[in-house]
Amino acid sequence: MFGWIVLAIILVVAGYAVVVYNNLVRQRQLSKEGWSGIDVQLKRRTDLIPNLLESVKGYMAHERETLEAVTAARTAAQSAQNGTPEQRAQAEGVLSGALGRLFAVAEAYPDLKASQNFLQFQGELSNTENEIQLSRRYYNGTARDLNTAVESFPSNIFANIFHFEKVQYFELDNPADRAVPTVKF
């Protein structure tokens, strides 16, 4: 009889370990999916920028410094693509700031504000910024769930055994970077 009780306890613990392990795997996959969503939207934004700059160049030839700042920030954001969420957020924050300055300078050019190409890229960029915000919110939610499972008892025991680790949130350090660049005209 004692043998059956021990066997039953072992089976319950093993069953619980399987359930916890599968939950941790699911949380990790959701987190990866969330990060992929952010990555897609950030890539879309960096792909839109050259077209936006081309539509602006003719009108803003003497605003070379602003255009160069956007180009440099875009390059930095592209080079941070394989970095940590913290590194990526920092580079994307700089890019958002540079885009905000570009749109602020564009206010002085009425012909540019009426340009169909510029208006189209402005709308696309605004939509992309909204998608980035939604993707960031989804990713941070999945990161929270995974981190909670990795830190909570007793699932933390199995997380340590199977080498599950916490993931970083995608956060912007500078409060000014948290704001979506103003793209109204």
UniProtKB/TrEMBL annotation:
<dbReference type="InterPro" id="IPR023353">
    <property type="entry name" value="LemA-like_dom_sf"/>
</dbReference>
<keyword id="KW-0812">Transmembrane</keyword>
<protein>
    <submittedName>
        <fullName>LemA family protein</fullName>
    </submittedName>
</protein>
<dbReference type="InterPro" id="IPR007156">
    <property type="entry name" value="MamQ_LemA"/>
</dbReference>
<keyword id="KW-0472">Membrane</keyword>
<dbReference type="GO" id="GO:0016020">
    <property type="term" value="C:membrane"/>
</dbReference>
<dbReference type="Pfam" id="PF04011">
    <property type="entry name" value="LemA"/>
</dbReference>
<comment type="similarity">
    <text>Belongs to the LemA family.</text>
</comment>
<keyword id="KW-1133">Transmembrane helix</keyword>
